[in-house]
Amino acid sequence: MNKKLNFPVVIPFVEQLGLELWRFEGGHAEVAVDLERAHLNSWEVAHGGVMMTMLDVAMAHAARSIRLDEAGGGPGVATVEMKTSFMRPGEGRLRATGTLLHRTATLAFCEGAVRDEGGALCAHGTATFKYVRALAGRQRAIKPLQRADGAPADPDAPTNP
After folding, report:
1. What's the whole-model pTM score?
2. Are 68 and 61 in contact (CB under 8 A)?
């Protein structure tokens, strides 16, 4: 791991968990976290939801990284489905990698892994993501992607009326 990067989009949940972005390029992404008490389950190891979130974020960023725009951000993605297998408890600093396996104009197929400090595989996942310009929120109001740099995610995306 070289240098910590800024996330190209605003994801308050990810910020709250303390995830760090370490790679975001060419169909690959990497996120890491130093586990704290709030990340643990009743066995005092990483909660499965933390590892699943790490996989989701790493794979989604891998899907986004293949189509970067001038500002260094990629298209929005929404998780369509995800499967996770847990191999061993996660402890200490965890690292999740995501890889884009295949993409179409509208879908991305990815895989990911969560490893501990020693490189042991803690969890593996696969997921399908849909490339999206915006999401319909309450009362079908369009919700644009919230870019970290404040720039419009897609100038051709519909806006709220």
Report:
1. 0.86
2. no
